[in-house]
Amino acid sequence: MNRIFPPQSDHPLFRYFTDDERTFIEAISRVISVEDGDYLIRANEDDSTLFAVEIGHLDVIINRDGQPGVLATVGPGEVLGEVSFIDDSTRSVSVKAGEKTVVRAWEKSTLVDALRSDPQLLAKFSVAMSELLVERLRDSVRRHGSFRPA
Length: 150
Description:
Elements: H1 19-27, E1 30-34, E2 39-41, E3 50-55, E4 58-64, E5 67-74, E6 79-80, H2 82-87, E7 94-97, E8 101-106, H3 108-116, H4 119-144
């Protein structure tokens, strides 16, 4: 954890936001209901929306050798779409509801405009997003890490 901002929440995206800042950021999002078996994200789509799961769970699906498989299952408090949000790349995985699920969604342009207007909020968001990406990288290395002797 950083030593710049004190933690305010256990939610990875809002980790350093005050209650008022979180309320403001949530107000510029939209709430989406995803039915069981429906896709929230499809691999190779051009979309930079950032999502946070509120209720339910979603399966992160990747194709390997032409066969779809569940890479991970995410639930309340989890963030999705952060890579495409940051670099505008196409989606690398599909995300499918494993049950009726509710997510909060931020269009990139709306969230970026809001963050631009408040440098302190931008800094808190950037630190939280960096920590989220580091956590994902560490998790990926733990799950899939292999090495060969040098």
